[in-house]
Design a protein that fits this description.
There is one protein chain. It is globular, with a radius of gyration of 18 Å. It is mainly alpha-helical. The protein is about 75% helix and about 0% strand.
């Protein structure tokens, strides 16, 4: 997940808006929706299966149904697809709660990284960084230019997303499911620095 989930909103979207205008928000929003519903939700389901692999199928199903993140994604999709109008109070509460998610994740990331030795080479972090900032944009460029004739207004922002740094959500899941959060935290730092060069080349 860290190799393909991007820091869309806080890193790539402002750059794409400056380069291509407000119309760049449409393709990036579409990518965010796909990443959230497919990659993010799929990773959580995989982690739930892995963490309950010794339990019965009913226990696994119950853990999936009781997962608040999966439930919120499912409810959000249902509300959006059905076109139900929400009360302004719900929208205000969701906006406040959603705005706190990224700062809280970054604060936790800082705590973890404060205990990390940057001088020692973390091969997992380097591998994830290479996949995210080199292989991912190369595959996207090969697909968008060699097989599918995309409109440049959609292709160019999508290429920026492919070349962007790792997002913070893999780090959040790593902490929750006790995966190596230190390596993912370092991958976020490494890929953020490396993406300065890859994004400059694409821009």
């Amino acid at each position: 997940m860290a190799s393909c989930f991007v820091n869309h909103v806080f890193f790539v979207l402002p750059i794409a808006t400056i380069l291509y205008g407000e119309q760049a928000a449409a393709p990036i929003s579409a990518i965010i929706a796909i990443d959230t519903t497919v990659i993010f939700a799929g990773t959580i389901m995989g982690l739930e299966f892995a963490s309950h692999r010794t339990e019965s199928g009913w226990r696994v199903l119950r853990s999936l149904l009781g997962n608040p993140v999966l439930a919120s994604i499912a409810v959000g999709l249902a509300v959006n697809l059905s076109g139900i109008a929400l009360h302004d109070g719900i929208i205000t509460f969701s906006s406040f709660a959603g705005a706190a998610a990224a700062p809280a994740a970054l604060f936790s990331l800082g705590i973890i990284l404060a205990k990390t030795r940057f001088l020692s080479l973390d091969y997992a972090a380097v591998t994830v960084t290479g996949l995210k900032t080199v292989i991912h944009p190369l595959l996207a460029w090969f697909l968008f230019t060699g097989f599918v004739d995309f409109d440049p207004l959609w292709r160019n922002p999508a290429l920026l997303v492919a070349a962007g740094p790792c997002g913070a959500m893999p780090f959040v899941l790593a902490m929750q499911y006790r995966v190596r959060a230190e390596s993912i935290g370092l991958a976020i730092i490494y890929s953020t620095v490396a993406s300065l060069f890859t994004l400059s080349l694409l821009a």
